[in-house]
């Protein structure tokens, strides 16, 4: 090997050492920078006479990086659920603590117990009214806060869409810059680091698929396969809605939609509604949409079920049918003079050895018909909406058009009669009753419309659907009947002729029984029970089940978020072990590079000395 070859080898070695020193310097300087990937020196032997050449390679692990991004999406999702559901749980309060829904329920129940023992005491009656107002106000506050959380979710969706668009635009720009420089350029590694940081942030909003090209550029797709970045970045649109209320819902029908939707506008010109097509169900964005449209809507439904239960359990009276005969036909008749919109008639009859149950609901608005069998929480009943605006004769005609020909509805002076087919003896009417809301406060049975719909213009709650479903948002509007506030004797006096004695505990006892003992089926839309097995309980029991349900959801969300954070931390540690900077290792590299530098420098020194000797010959 000649002197020139030795000189070339030593020179190449020094260049390699210099590259190595640069990589160590970069690694140490940026060790704590988010998303920084370690630079490693990769030497390559060129032969005995040429020495080595080197390149700087950025450490990476594509599999782990994809795993981290996937789990980041789930982490973003669980964090949003934890944040929102913990707030909901706080709205309901800790059972037993002042201001909690449980405490307000207990306060109302205790005030009624006191009322039973001292119905003639003004202060006791006033305390009962005050406890009822406290309960109504508590439901108002929780309901309003639930809608505030839905509005917050709406606003955060808008913020997320802005952040997503910003990230996609930055990634598009990074792609252009990466494509314009070679991998040997020091800026190339920095661009890849910035790209990974943007991908990490984007993955928190949704699950993404990243496909790298040979030149270092990438394309991105959603979990469902929609292109987000293919040369040009797609853009997200969101039509933000303000003033979200309990009646504001998402609908596939554009004309009925009261909240914003997320639209993906691709670079090739097509638009797709991601929510309408069920394509946005992961990450922060998916969680926010689910909270706004399902989870918090269900919470509102629970509150509305409590409010409706309080109203109807105290004000509804069941009017039993009485036997009736029409020629050879027999059956029952029921007085419907007090039937309000939304009230119902329950009919049971046997036909061909099978028992059939039908629930007729008063619905005077024909645009709401027909009703679904899901309208009631009862199992196995057929639900039929009937217009009573034309009187009992018109209602009977409408019922006969829906019923089996072997059962006949007949208009009476005060209601309807249902009779079987008489001599044919193929059917038999077995039961008839009607559930009717007390419109007055006296002389209509023990039922009392203590809780009503509205703060200004108050109306009786009857479950009406005219104009809007009266149950939806009722917990926001629930208030105590102004007439009872002004005259608390109505808590006791249920009759004027004869006049109820002020010391009579009959109505207070009835209120307690209706609140704590009377059972009813609750709508499965509230997320407790199902159509096949509806939750049957008293109003008080249902309210406590709701509180327990919300506490359980919050605890589950917190645990899921904690577990997901552990998963992400574990994967990030694995990725760091593969690609991160360890200062001790860099110092070890530095010592090795110093030794290499010294060795190559010594070779150059020896060559120089030999050249000098040759020159002196």
Share of helical residues: 40-55%
Arithmetic mean of pLDDT: 89
- Can you tell me the residue ranges where pLDDT is under 50 for at least 5 consecutive residues? none
Secondary structure class reads: alpha+beta
How many runs of DSSP E, i.e. beta strands?
22
Oligomer: single chain
Q: In percent terms, what proportion of residues is strand?
A: 15-25%
Gross morphology: elongated
* CA-atom Rg in angstroms: 38 Å
Task: Determine the N-to-C terminus distance.
Answer: 21 Å
Strand order of the largest sheet: 10-18-13-14-15
SS field, number of helical segments: 12
* Largest sheet features: 5 strands, mixed
Describe this entry's structure for a reader.
With 617 residues, the protein is of the alpha+beta class. The chain is built from 12 helices and 22 strands. The chain has a domain at 3-59 and 580-616. The protein is 47% helix and 19% strand. Helix 3 runs antiparallel to helix 10 (506-516) and helix 4 (122-179) runs antiparallel to helix 6. It is elongated. The two termini are 21 Å apart.
Question: Characteristics of this structure?
Answer:
617 residues; alpha+beta; five-stranded mixed sheet; four-stranded antiparallel sheet; 12 helices; 22 strands; 47% helix; elongated
């Amino acid at each position: 090997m000649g002197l020139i070859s030795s000189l070339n080898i030593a020179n190449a070695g020094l260049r390699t050492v210099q590259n190595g020193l640069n990589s160590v310097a970069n690694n140490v300087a940026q060790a704590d920078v988010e998303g920084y990937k370690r630079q490693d020196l990769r030497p390559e032997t060129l032969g005995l006479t040429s020495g080595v050449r080197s390149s700087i390679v950025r450490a990476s692990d594509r599999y782990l990086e994809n795993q981290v991004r996937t789990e980041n999406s789930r982490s973003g999702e669980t964090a949003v659920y934890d944040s929102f559901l913990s707030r909901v749980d706080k709205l309901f309060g800790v059972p037993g603590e002042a201001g909690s829904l449980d405490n307000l329920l207990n306060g109302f129940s205790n005030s009624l117990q006191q009322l039973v023992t001292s119905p003639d005491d003004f202060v006791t009656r006033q305390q009962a009214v005050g406890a009822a107002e406290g309960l109504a106000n508590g439901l108002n506050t929780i309901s309003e806060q639930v809608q505030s959380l839905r509005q917050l979710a709406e606003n955060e969706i808008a913020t997320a869409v802005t952040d997503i668009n910003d990230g996609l635009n930055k990634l598009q720009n990074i792609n252009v810059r990466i494509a314009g420089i070679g991998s040997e350029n020091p800026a190339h590694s920095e661009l890849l680091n910035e790209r990974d940081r943007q991908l990490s942030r984007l993955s928190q909003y949704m699950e993404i698929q990243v496909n790298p090209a040979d030149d270092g550029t990438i394309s991105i797709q959603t979990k469902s396969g929609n292109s987000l970045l293919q040369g040009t970045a797609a853009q997200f649109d969101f039509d933000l809605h303000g003033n979200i209320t309990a009646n504001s819902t998402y609908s596939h029908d554009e004309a009925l939609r009261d909240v914003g939707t997320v639209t993906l506008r691709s670079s090739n010109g097509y638009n797709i509604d991601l929510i309408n097509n069920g394509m946005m169900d992961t990450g922060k964005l998916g969680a926010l949409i689910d909270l706004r449209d399902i989870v918090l809507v269900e919470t509102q439904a629970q509150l509305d079920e409590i409010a409706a239960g309080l109203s109807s359990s105290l004000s509804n009276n069941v009017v039993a049918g009485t036997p009736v005969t029409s020629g050879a036909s027999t059956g029952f008749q029921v007085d419907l003079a007090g039937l309000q919109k939304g009230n119902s008639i329950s009919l049971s009859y046997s036909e061909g050895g099978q028992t059939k149950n039908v629930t007729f609901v008063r619905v005077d608005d024909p645009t709401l018909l027909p009703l679904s069998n899901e309208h009631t929480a009862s199992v196995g009943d057929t639900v039929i909406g009937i217009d009573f605006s034309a009187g009992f004769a018109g209602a009977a005609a409408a019922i006969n058009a829906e019923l089996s020909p072997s059962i006949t509805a007949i208009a009476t002076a005060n209601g309807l009669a249902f009779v079987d087919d008489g001599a044919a003896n193929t059917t038999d009417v077995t039961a008839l009753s009607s559930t009717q809301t007390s419109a007055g406060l006296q002389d209509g049975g023990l039922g009392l419309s203590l809780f009503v719909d509205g703060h200004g213009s108050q109306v009786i709650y009857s479950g009406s659907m005219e104009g809007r479903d009266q149950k939806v948002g009722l917990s926001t509007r629930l208030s105590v009947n102004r007439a009872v506030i002004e005259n608390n004797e109505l808590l006791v006096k249920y009759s004027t002729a004869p006049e109820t004695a002020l010391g009579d505990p009959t109505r207070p006892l009835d209120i307690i029984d209706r609140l704590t003992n009377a059972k009813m089926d609750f709508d499965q839309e509230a997320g407790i029970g199902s159509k096949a097995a509806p939750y049957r309980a008293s109003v008080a029991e249902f309210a406590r089940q709701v509180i327990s349900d919300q506490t359980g959801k919050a605890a589950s969300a917190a645990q899921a978020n904690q577990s997901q954070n552990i998963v992400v931390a574990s994967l990030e540690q694995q990725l760091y072990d593969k690609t991160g900077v360890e200062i001790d290792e860099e110092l070890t590299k530095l010592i090795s590079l110093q030794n290499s530098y010294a060795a190559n420098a010594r070779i150059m020194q020896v060559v120089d000395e030999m050249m000098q000797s040759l020159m002196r010959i």
